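Please, structure for the following, as tokens.
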Amino acid sequence: MSAPAGAGPVLAALAGDPVLAAHYADFRAKATGALDPALVALIGETVAAVHGMGSAPDESDLDEATRTALAYARRMPFEHTAITDAEAAAVAAHLGEPGFVAFSVVTALADAECRAALVDLPGLAAA
């Protein structure tokens, strides 16, 4: 099984295990489907910028709550242990508890995809 077009490096690395790849794709789809697609895109851009893989999104037209969420997303890859309860509560207040959980998962997956791309995980998996 090859990874679908547009799939990230984690899914591409799982191509040799169709069952695991399908579970990962389903999990990812459910997490991203729980959030507004525009927010998912902003999370991806934000995390990619933290890893030096693109430009940070323009936040000038975003509301304060979305900017707060993106500030949280920026910290998750390398500063997750320093995120305070107050910062988490602010994002949860904006997205609701289920949205906060989905946001956290989507941010973690964006981080994993960036890290996988940086080390060429699909290439390592094929080796």
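The radius of gyration is 15 Å. Residues 1-6 have pLDDT under 50 and may be disordered.
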